[in-house]
């Protein structure tokens, strides 16, 4: 899969005696846009706070860019990481340039050229000499400014906590396109938390699904797509002969048995399927598609049963 940017090992965290993270294992590879999805209160922000060094686990550990969480050199790894936790820390009374100047002071960055670079990188270079206050920016512009602030260390790993929350459709597209550009043009790895899988599906290359503090599943974008493709469902009283008939259309690997019959890929011509099954005792045949939301809910329900 490639180099590992972040790997957690059995991370657990308690607040006031309540377990909010329970034995979480996850892996983010270099170049990923890792969609970290789960309902509100599932533990996403807690994970982000842990890897940012804002809080500490009660059990387990993580490795960030090859450095273990209790290694003093983890500080060097965090310098290559930028994070926006919950919302960007923007001074509304300052313009874009001065917001980044304040960030540079906090980080001990003396190269003022970094400010122009960060604004250019997120597509806000025009604001370098503009006195417009950040409080008057659109939500999409504020989110992009927040990403510019996270990039000030020239980070190659960005962690964004619900970056699309509250944005209008234009702002969502704006931020989504920026994430894709930073990933593809600059090779920046992303960990993006959200409770909206449908929105993440437009940008993510891998996913981690978390619920009630448990990591339920990690899955690639291609695997998710395969789970949600159109299928043809066939119900029958004679599975043996129907299966033999289907083998004239598809390979054995493409035939999935169900309690009622079989499911086969939905890209087949319907007329060819009907022709192959002619004369056999078919009790039902229809096309079906699992939506991303349906898949997510089925994974969550299964995870809760196994937790």
TrEMBL record:
Checking PROSITE patterns in the record gives:
ABC_TRANSPORTER_1, ABC_TRANSPORTER_2
Gene Ontology MF, one: ATP binding
Concerning InterPro entries, the annotation shows:
AAA+_ATPase, ABC_transporter-like_ATP-bd, ABC_transporter-like_CS, P-loop_NTPase
| Keyword tags | ATP-binding, Nucleotide-binding, Transport
- Residue span(s) of domain ABC transporter: 6-237
Record family assignment: Belongs to the ABC transporter superfamily.
Protein name listed in UniProt: ABC-2 type transport system ATP-binding protein
Organism, scientific name: Anaeroplasma bactoclasticum
